[in-house]
Amino acid sequence: MAKEIRIALRNSGLINPESIQEYISADGYQALRKALRSEPIGIYEEIYDSGLRGRGGAGFPTGTKEKAAALICSNCEKFVVCNADEGEPGTFKDRIIMETDPHTLIEGMVIAAYSIGASRGFIYIRGEYELSIKRVQLAIEQAYQHGFLGENILGSNYNFDLEVRRGAGSYLCGEELTLIESIEGKRGYPRIKPPFPAEKGLWGAPTLINNVETLANFPQIILNGAKWYRTIGTEGSPGTKIFTISGDVNKPGYYEFPMGITLRELIFDVAGGIRNGKPFGAALLGGAAGTFASEKHLDVHMGYDKLKEVGLTLGSGAVIVMDATRDLNKIMLSILKFFKHESCGKCIPCRVGTSHLYQALNEALQQPHFSFESLYPNLIKQAEIMARTSLCPLGQSPILPLRSLWENLSESLIMK
Ligand SMILES: Cc1cc2nc3c(=O)[nH]c(=O)nc-3n(C[C@H](O)[C@H](O)[C@H](O)COP(=O)(O)O)c2cc1C
Ligand code: SF4
Fold first, then answer.
1. Which stretches of the chain score pLDDT less than 50?
2. Which residues contact 20 (CB under 8 A, 6 or more apart)?
3. Of the ligands numbered here, which is closest to the C-alpha atom of 217?
4. Residues carrying CATH 1.20.1440.230, the chain
5. 240-323 belongs to which CATH class?
6. Where in the chain is the domain with CATH 3.40.50.11540?
7. Does the structural domain 20-230 have CATH classification 3.40.50.11540?
């Protein structure tokens, strides 16, 4: 496709993911060689200058986190963790990277680890991702055999060990501090933030935690430089993004495009338009913890800042498309059911609040002539209180789909 540029998915479908030789032939591990010849400061400065922002959902500047983890102490134990839990509904990009090009992720992790001075790393993979786990494990073994992991990597005196940890099916375990608890072998309850992982992460040590797609951008940024990276995408959101498009479109799938592509281009050009020739209804951007876009947003540029200006979120890059015949109340109900199910129950506002939001909408939907005009403002008020008082970001999430649905699509809610 004309505008398609692949960075994280550069090798996807082009090389055999189980062959390290094919990865090496495609310039694989060249960025690591280059990184190991530089001082660590050169690496995190390059990532900082590239403007790369976290692809896990929050969009936090990656270089800032890296710099904090690098500078917090020298000669102390540090860790790098890759978040491959991929629990956000509608998101399936990290799986593709791990299944089709696992060495890109490993190379990105070793570069990140070297830049902050970490000696050990973990890839925390969603438990159901059997093929990802198999391919990443095989790639780790091959990387050890070829001297890209372990002691004295490529003769540099730098040592780094990497292993896989398997998630156990909790959405909340994708939240960084909960994930850290899980790797430590504890129950998946969140920790209070601050301290942030870069200060106090795994076993109390400084920890850099990044999403798979974020780390998969590292090798190309180091090889080609921050300036090159900034020529792609927009000023506020440089680079590319993998969008996972699902729902009522003709060609659902994963697509990597420069940031700044419009929602209209994604849905109608890339994903082939709405199925069965029906009109467009809505798109949920960023998964359950995301926001509802309506027809008026079709020409908004997909990037962190532009979406924020109109009250929307990019999140993980999930785009769940609904045609105009979909009952959006029922879709909202399934989102609230998801939050109710995934709430860990540690704090009252979220434990009680997620159940209450679900029950209130469910009961309303059982009645033949219900006034949604009075229901939604009440749900929003409750979700706002939850957002202010919940312990972790999960309890702060239901407000996002609820408010955006009501603000952008209230007419279709009332008419149904
Ligand atoms: C409830 C919840 C679930 C999350 N799930 C994921 C996930 O599955 N994968 C992910 O990369 N980030 C997830 N995050 C975001 C992480 O907390 C964190 O921001 C991310 O791993 C940081 O990496 P990045 O800066 O590279 O995006 C989740 C956050 C919350 C609050
Ligand atoms: S906000 Fe929800 S998920 Fe987070 S600690 Fe409280 S109950 Fe658990």
1. none
2. 28, 103, 139, 142, 143, 145, 146
3. 1
4. 328-415
5. alpha beta
6. 20-230
7. yes
Give the per-residue pLDDT at 169.
87
CATH number of this structure's domain 328-415: 1.20.1440.230
Write out residues with Cβ below 6 Å of ligand 1.
54-58, 60, 62, 83, 85-88, 171-172, 174-176, 209-211, 214, 393-394
Between the CA of 225 and the centroid of ligand 1 the distance, in Å, is 26
What's residue 1's pLDDT? 61
- pLDDT score at 196: 96
CB–CB of 178/172 below 8 Å?
Answer: yes
312: which 2 tokens?
Answer: 């929307």
The rounded Å distance from CA 35 to ligand 2 centre is 40
Q: Contact 280/295 with Cβ under 8 angstroms?
A: yes
- pLDDT, tens digit, for every residue of 65-77? 999 999 999 889 9
Distance 342 CA to ligand 2 centre (A): 9
Instruction: For tokens 């609230």, name the residue.
Output: 336
